Amino acid sequence: MQFGIFTVGDVTTDPMTGETISEHDRIELMTAIGLKAEEVGLDVFATGEHHNPPFVPSSPTTMLGWIAAKTEKLRLTTTTTLITTNDPVKIAEDFAMLQHLSNGRVDLTLGRGNTGPVYPWFGKDIRQGIPLAIENYHLLRRLWREKNIDWQGKFRTPLQGYTSTPAPLDDTPPFIWHGSIRSPEIAEQAAFYGDGFFHNNIFWNKEHTEQMVKLYRQRFEHYGHGAADQAIVGLGGQVFMAETEAEAKRRFRPYFDNAPVYGHGPSMEDFTEMTPLTVGTPEMVIEKTLSFADYAGDYQRQLFLVDHAGLPMEQVLEQVEILGKEVVPTLRAEFERRRPAHVPSDPPTHESLVAAGPDAPHHLVTPAESLVGAGTEGH
């Protein structure tokens, strides 16, 4: 199972000091926690994509390329890449280049984004969000799997004899996760292609998460990719840890109460009860994280948010250290102990996809149609 951290790159005033970090310093913090993640043995670093203040990560591949150059094992991904407002031709080029530069240590999570105004900024209509996600992703699959493409769709200019360059490393496209917190159509899309489904459940109750993941699992099986419990699932979470629960609450409460995404709503205790947020000891984080599988099933990737709400760099790096050294080793062992033998431990990687060979379903533009055609529908 893969464990890692993800950042949304918010620039939020520290409520304890009244100071607001500069965009430059915030970007340096994001890259620092990426390097720290590898140092303490985490598997994955992920960055979001935003195009409006107070967020700074507008160019994920630039940041991930920098981190790739300074790491050796860390897997690099996004949470999420906007499949609606980015041109799929540019996504194909950028991430294929990153895949080469990182020696295959890259996958990406596609999503529609959560900022409405971004659509007109990039010439798109938010009312077409779902159709854009569906059409653009199908074109992206073709760009990474075919040469000399003739293509015509609804949302961009036609392509005639087009070949994306560079081609994916080893002719093996990066593994794709589809990120969604509320759209069943995206769960359906992930299931159709046999891709991963990332449910960033940090603001959602477990009943909602269970419903979304269950839908994806059922449709994954319907399309013939395997049993429902073998579907590839990733979850989010956010934590703040200290030696005692009281100390963790004392230190994190000012940040929770003032953060734009948290404060002025449910109390920290109520939010902790309703969502994956854990504020307490490493043992409490382990206990609650293990409980995610009770309603989402055995899954393959767990990402934690630790660098938000104006937390200063030294505290963020401390959290990454605790995660890597005190939390993840136990989580890794306990998740594997309870996982049935037929359920994948890890999501597909570049290495596993290359080993599967050129005839594996991953290399098909529409793998579900192939599997259904082979008579495996419903298995």
TrEMBL record:
<dbReference type="InterPro" id="IPR036661">
    <property type="entry name" value="Luciferase-like_sf"/>
</dbReference>
<keyword id="KW-0560">Oxidoreductase</keyword>
<feature type="domain" description="Luciferase-like">
    <location>
        <begin position="1"/>
        <end position="294"/>
    </location>
</feature>
<dbReference type="InterPro" id="IPR011251">
    <property type="entry name" value="Luciferase-like_dom"/>
</dbReference>
<dbReference type="GO" id="GO:0016705">
    <property type="term" value="F:oxidoreductase activity, acting on paired donors, with incorporation or reduction of molecular oxygen"/>
</dbReference>
<feature type="region of interest" description="Disordered">
    <location>
        <begin position="338"/>
        <end position="360"/>
    </location>
</feature>
<dbReference type="InterPro" id="IPR050766">
    <property type="entry name" value="Bact_Lucif_Oxidored"/>
</dbReference>
<dbReference type="GO" id="GO:0004497">
    <property type="term" value="F:monooxygenase activity"/>
</dbReference>
<dbReference type="InterPro" id="IPR023934">
    <property type="entry name" value="LLM_FMN-dep_put"/>
</dbReference>
<dbReference type="Pfam" id="PF00296">
    <property type="entry name" value="Bac_luciferase"/>
</dbReference>
<dbReference type="GO" id="GO:0005829">
    <property type="term" value="C:cytosol"/>
</dbReference>
<keyword id="KW-0503">Monooxygenase</keyword>
<protein>
    <submittedName>
        <fullName>5,10-methylene tetrahydromethanopterin reductase</fullName>
    </submittedName>
</protein>
